[in-house]
């Protein structure tokens, strides 16, 4: 129950209504990087929902993570506009460099790789997102440089 | 004298280094003793030139781009703070043909103003629509929107005035305005450009919508893939509230309206209006059966005007300049302008706001300059992942809702993704089904199961497995998804697939029909 105090503070910051669920889940993930399973029960109690309803929401939205990610979450755009600019080759390069598939975390714990369907950067693709930063015009060499920076960043 | 320098803080500009360029310009100008005021504007929409830096000169704003950090010392040496010539100089921004040929009504301020400056907003025509609306009755506002011919810019193109009239006429003590900013279609980014470049325009549009339908509360549902837009939008709402634009006494009128922004969760389906409402209410984003229409039974069961960002952001100019002014742009039943988005493998990608009626060829070749790769264009997917692929021989199509529909395509939200002749259309057809399988909300079977079966049968066709049986099977599956799905996700995923089969059979190993 290491997160107990934090969870209660975040829950208390919102009105105790069902429509607060997604904003609270965002605030939990913003703080912790994921939504730990122990969040479900206090959320359900505070918002007068069943645990199944809370779990159903957490599991529905791809943005919400119920598994602790690596230090950096890297989302690679797989949508059509990036494909038209060569994202399939970039995707193969990224997977080979990291040695992981989508929804996996690199062995050193530095990077979790996720697919994303459009970052709205469609005239400057291929695009990826790291944390809250979007990176455009990504090719293999730009990715390799970014990867070195991320691997060195252990903060 | 302090010189104004503009470096966009738009996501696209930042994605290619605008943040570091801004820091470098500020630091190096200071080191040289040049007094500059750095304005972090929105994007002009010339994406291929980002980061596009502008300097205000007595003759007008002069543009340079694309600028990297390494270019900054040379630009300062050349005297770019005085608008001097340089290999990256593009001349006066307003004279760049790509911009000069546009008809910017909704995007009139985007890229020009400081997105978070209310003073800048007012100085560039902001609030004129709202002031006009405050002197009108709700019925008169709705009539103006109806007469303007404005149709829903999210893709469905439903007449906005008729939707508003339904909400206005609906009985209820509480009504809502909801802005759909869940711009999930690949190849579209006009909502984002507006949210990051002129958020007060959306807020003004929602205020007018609130006055029109009798709502005191608005929600903006923004996709979580837009972190920069989220920050800008929330900052804009806060400033609007502090300035008395939002709150209990809108601009001293005694009317009340406030806006709350909500962040989505990465689910494409939440761009479907009823799934969006479910999501705002705190549930899984699953589609509701219609009827009842959201206009009658919408958010929290109340009458709700739910509109796309661009629809709402087009309302201020309609109220400010009159319905006839807006209606005079366009062709047929497609009135006004549409901010087209040129994306994918295109030389000059970006935002082109034009009246309806120009052809796809003009858009992609005159504005877009063909492909970025220099190879011939093979096709363009118009209207997002649920839109048909349009082959080059159909590029004479005028950009008009009805003209596109007549040829089995759709304009949608105005996004156009260009592909060159190296594209494998069998792979794109498979992707259409794969995307639907990944993003289906799961509520109806044709979409949830059909999309997975679609991937499998396309794979079998591509592998040359029993094509004589599998091709009719795929066509049958597509018909079933079109007819049997609850919403456009499953109901329109077959359109890109069928358009590819029709126009590019060789990519599926099939002989030309």
Polypeptide structure, described:
The complex is a heterodimer of chains A (155) and B (513). Chain A is 44% helix and 13% strand. Chain A is α+β, with helices and mostly antiparallel strands and 155 residues long. Chain A folds into two domains: 4-60, Orthogonal Bundle (Arc Repressor Mutant, subunit A), CATH 1.10.10.1590; 72-152, Glutaredoxin (3-Layer(aba) Sandwich), CATH 3.40.30.10. A five-stranded mixed β-sheet of chain A has the order 2-3-1-4-5, with helices on one face. In chain A, strand 2 (104-105) and strand 3 form a beta hairpin. The longest helix of chain A has 13 residues, at 140-152. Chain B has 513 residues and is α/β, with parallel strands linked by helices. Chain B folds into four domains: 3-100, Glutaredoxin; 118-327, 3-Layer(aba) Sandwich (Rossmann fold); 330-420, Ubiquitin-like (UB roll); 425-508, NADH-ubiquinone oxidoreductase 51kDa subunit, iron-sulphur binding domain (de novo design (two linked rop proteins)). Chain B contains 21 helices and 16 strands. Chain B has helices spanning 11-15, 18-31, 72-78, 97-100, 118-123, 128-134, 138-148, 160-169, 190-197, 199-213, 227-242, 273-280, 309-321, 323-327, 360-367, 401-406, 425-439, 445-462, 467-484, 488-492, 494-503, and strands at residues 3-6, 36-39, 53-57, 60-64, 89-92, 176-181, 217-222, 258-263, 304-308, 330-331, 334-335, 337-344, 350-355, 377-382, 389-391, 415-420. In chain B, the strands form four sheets. A five-stranded mixed β-sheet of chain B has the order 2-1-3-4-5, with helices on one face. In chain B, strands 13-12-16-14-15 form a five-stranded mixed β-sheet. Chain B has a four-stranded parallel β-sheet with strand order 8-7-6-9, sandwiched between helices. In chain B, helix 6 packs parallel to helix 10 (199-213), helix 6 crosses helix 13 (309-321) and helix 17 (425-439) packs antiparallel against helix 18 (445-462). Classes of the chains: A alpha+beta (155), B alpha/beta (513). Chains A and B meet through helix 2, helix 4, helix 5 and strand 5 of A and helix 1, strand 12, strand 16 and helix 17 of B.
